[in-house]
Amino acid sequence: MKKPVGRLAPSPTGALHLGNARTFLLAWLSVRSRGGTLVLRVEDLDHPKVKPGAAAAALEDLRWLGLDWDEGPDAGGPHGPYVQSLRRASYRAALDALLAKGLAYPCTCSRRDVADAQSAPHGRDPHSLAYSGACRGRYASWDEAAAALPAGRVPAWRFRTPPGISSFDDVFLGRKELDLAGELGDFAFARDRDGAGYQLACTLDDAAMGVTEVLRGDDLVDATHCQLAIQAALGLPRPVYAHVPLVVAEDGRRLAKRHGDTRICALREAGLPPERVVGLLAWWSGLAPYGAETRPADLVRGFDLARVPRAPAVLDSRAKAIFATGGA
């Protein structure tokens, strides 16, 4: 079998925390256990939220944990640049291709507009409300749409979603299906004149960098269906996908400041050895006993994604006790 190419894709919108680190560890192990190649890509297109120095800090945290990569902004490689803000020309070219096919259009609808257009309560995440297509054919160009908005707001580019069921076989979750047009409608893929937004950029970069496996959090399953639609429209190859449960707090919500300081840099500064932090991530993942101290390299032999629990990992009192005492 051809060896896999996976990727680590930190976003410099904040410090790397335990939840991010666990997903990165599993992505790293999945590829390293089969002798594959790892690409590190900095996804820095969320401009208002990007924090100065956060990209370099994320790479430092990953190295401290014992995770490495074969291609990246520091390592170089044949598929650079490995920072998305430096790849805008490719996004513009893809946007132009979608426009030429009649598959993209500018939209001025706000999230409130989309919600108000729903005829009945929608069961999905409020960030994924089905869009009615109200702006289809409304504006001849991005500039025309932008002129219709108040100062400080910009249009979104939407993908003209075809009817039918989107499906893929997830390595971890099994068969996933979604009526993309019915459930999400014409989804937004960028809020940038040149198409430099998450959905389009992620799809293009995975293809351009030869990524054959994407392991990420299960909160991105819907995003995968959107990216499959873009791949089909542009004739791009489809990677294998695996979506794993997130790390959540005892209240069931994803990690945030209200749940304590779970930043990797804070744990490092508190004097914890990286082996203890990796041990916690491995325990959450069914790969090591409670309280073990280990390195990612120690977990490579015999790694099996099937050992990872199906339920979210929980930052409970037992987990907190592992790092509550600081360094040894």
Question: How does this model look, in words?
Answer:
The chain has helices spanning 18-32, 54-65, 88-100, 111-116, 142-147, 180-183, 198-208, 221-234, 264-269, 274-284, 317-324; strands at residues 5-8, 37-40, 104-107, 156-159, 165-170, 174-179, 188-190, 213-217, 240-244, 247-249, 313-315. The protein is α/β, with parallel strands linked by helices. The chain has two domains: 5-85 and 245-324, Rossmann fold (3-Layer(aba) Sandwich), CATH 3.40.50; 87-206, Alpha-Beta Complex (Glutamyl-tRNA Synthetase, domain 3), CATH 3.90.800.10. A hairpin with a 3-residue loop joins strand 5 and strand 6. The chain is globular, with a radius of gyration of 21 Å. The termini are far apart.
Question: How are the secondary structure elements laid out?
Answer:
Blueprint: E1 5-8, H1 18-32, E2 37-40, H2 54-65, H3 88-100, E3 104-107, H4 111-116, H5 142-147, E4 156-159, E5 165-170, E6 174-179, H6 180-183, E7 188-190, H7 198-208, E8 213-217, H8 221-234, E9 240-244, E10 247-249, H9 264-269, H10 274-284, E11 313-315, H11 317-324
Parallel strand pairs: 1-2, 8-9, 10-11
Antiparallel strand pairs: 3-4, 4-7, 5-6
Helix pairs in contact: 1-10, 7-8
